[in-house]
Amino acid sequence: MWRFTVSISRRTVVGAVLIGITVAVSSLGIVRAERDGITRDVKVYSCSSGSACLEGKATGHNTFGVWGNSSAGTGVQGNSSATNKNSGVAGISSATSGTGYGVYGRSSNGPGVYGTSILSNAIEGHNECCPGSSSYGTLPSAGVAGFGQTDGVMGVGNPQGESKYFGSSGVLGIAYGPSNWSSGIGNAAIQAYSGGGVDIFAGDSSKGGWCHIDALGNLTCKGTVIGYGTLRSRHRTESGRHVLTYASESATATVEDVGTARLTSGTANVQIEPAFASVIDHKWYYVFLTPMGDTRGLYVSMKTASGFQVRENQRGRSNVEFDYRIVAHPLDAKDDRLPDAPMQTNARIAMPGMQR
User: Fold this and answer.
1) In the 8-state DSSP scheme, what is residue 243?
2) Residue 267 lies in a domain
């Protein structure tokens, strides 16, 4: 019988043990790497108390507390299912001086701030400036203010894809508070209806001015309308051509009426139309005459609050028609001539930190 004897040295045993440990460590590393690869991009912090699950603090002037960067998706996104008026994302600026933004949005190829909503306003702004202060009337504050060389604020009200819903506003601005701003501008509110029409209020609507533009573009204002150009109207000719006409301008407030009357044996007593007579102040009015036939000339021999008398020159006794034009002063207008124009201002609201 053959007998074999195997001799294993201590060195061989140690080498085998080291090889086994190495293989085990390598396998553990592979498993760990695979596990890390699954969860490395998602970090979940759960908390039920305290001020925040995740907080970033920055004390540097140009250092961000939280920075989110994405080349193809959303940089920072916040989701909330709360029903107690909490927000998915909230931005708060707590400084009491200077100028700071609660939320700032900037874009090089789209809207700086974009909001959509299924049941409420897409973007809503409320201003609660300085309660209890006696000096907060120096400058107007707005719920939503827009400044820009294109659209400062753009609002589209179109619920359910329909533009016929008058209850939805494209832009809604409501100003609450006193109307005695020391700057004299007062509170302002603008409401634009998606079905057509714009309302503009300045200060107390019962005492201050307002304007309304209806769905057909008709403008109605309580106050003085001042333009920096000529007033023109659009008309259509018989051939269908559209042309512009210019409104007559006067050095003082005037109202006019025209008509036709007839001389009988050289005399005509003309009654001013009662509706026109009720809107003139009766202090003065002018009458311009144009005879419709051969006469010795016509003149106004007498004026009263209700009419005037016309006679033919040199005691003529013609029986011809004549046209007349009356220019009078409105009853409720100021009796001034070429008043000084108000200072021209930019068509925007002055806000703290903004140059006019």
Assistant:
1) E
2) yes
193-251 pLDDT tens trace: 766 788 887 655 556 678 888 888 888 888 888 888 888 999 999 999 999 999 999 99
Rounded CA separation 248/59 (Å)? 65
Residue appearing with tokens 């925007």: 348
Q: What is the CATH number of the domain that holds 288?
A: 2.60.40.2080
In this predicted model, what pLDDT tens digit does every residue of 126-159 receive, in sequence order? 666 554 444 434 444 556 666 555 556 666 655 5
Does the residue 98 lie in any domain? no
For residue 4, being part of any structural domain is answered with no
Q: Are residues 262 and 216 in the same domain?
A: no
| CB atoms inside a 10 Å sphere around CB 42 | 6
The share of the chain scoring above pLDDT 70, in percent, equals 63
Dist. CA 153–CA 145, nearest whole Å: 7
Contact predicate 257/308, CB 8 Å: no
What is the residue range of 213's domain?
159-222
Residues 170 and 213 in one domain: yes
For the chain, the domain total comes to 2
Q: Which residues of 303-317 are buried (b: 16+ CB within 10 A; e: fewer)?
A: eeeeebebbbeeebe
Contact by Cβ (8 Å): 310, 302: no
Say if 111 falls within a structural domain: no
Q: Report d(CA 301, CA 209) in Å as an integer.
A: 44
Among 317, 314, 287, residue whose Cα is nearest residue 300: 287
Q: Where are the beta strands (DSSP E) in the chain?
A: 169-172, 188-193, 198-202, 210-213, 219-222, 232-236, 242-246, 255-262, 267-271, 280-291, 298-303, 307-312, 321-330
Helix (H, G, I), strand (E, B) or coil at 107: coil
Q: Within this chain, do residues 259 and 198 fall inside the same structural domain, yes or no?
A: no
For residue range 259-304, list pLDDT tens digits in order.
999 999 999 999 999 999 999 998 899 999 999 999 999 999 999 9
Residues 164 and 214 in one domain: yes
User: CB–CB of 93/85 below 8 Å?
Assistant: no
Would you call 277 helix, strand, or coil by DSSP? helix
